[in-house]
Design a protein that fits this description.
Blueprint lengths: L6 H5 L2 H6 L7 H22 L4 E4 L4 H6 L13 E5 L3 H8 L6 E6 L9 E7 L9 E6 L1
Parallel strand pairs: 3-5
Antiparallel strand pairs: 1-2, 2-4, 3-4
Length: 139
């Protein structure tokens, strides 16, 4: 897909393997994943200079239901990924400067880690000038 991201990272999910769910994307979804990598993830990786782990990428309809994903999720068409790295605050800062459509942080609310970013949901829709949506969810 790009220098630092492979298709396998976006389709391998433990839930799919455990439940025997086929999570193979079609050509349309692969093309979207490639754009997500090219326009968002690879530039972020180069900016922060550290590996980014994809915790959830493409999801088939069946897998999306199994993980409790929202109906109409951009994961279903390969336009979104949930990611993390060793410095999520730095990653989030880099992503804010890129053409993300959705940028959602999942933050801890427990006593030891309150406010720290656990993971980030990011999407790219390919529409120039589209207003981005930013939010935080507490876990």
């Amino acid at each position: 897909m790009t220098e630092h991201f492979t298709l396998e990272e976006f389709v391998r999910l433990t839930t799919a393997k455990m439940r025997g769910i086929d999570n193979t994307p079609g050509a349309f979804e692969v093309a979207n994943l490639r754009l997500l990598c090219k326009k968002i993830l690879e530039p972020a990786r180069l900016k922060i200079g550290m590996p980014i782990t994809v915790t959830s990428g493409y999801r088939s309809e069946q897998l999306n239901r199994a993980v409790g994903g929202v109906k109409g999720s951009l994961h279903l068409i390969g336009k979104a990924a949930d990611i993390t790295c060793s410095d999520n605050a730095r990653l989030y800062e880099a992503l804010q400067k890129l053409p993300c459509f959705e940028l959602i942080t999942y933050r801890y609310k427990g006593p030891m880690l309150t406010g720290r970013i656990n993971r980030i949901h990011v999407s790219y829709n390919g529409v120039v000038g589209k207003i981005s949506r930013w939010s935080t969810k507490w876990i």
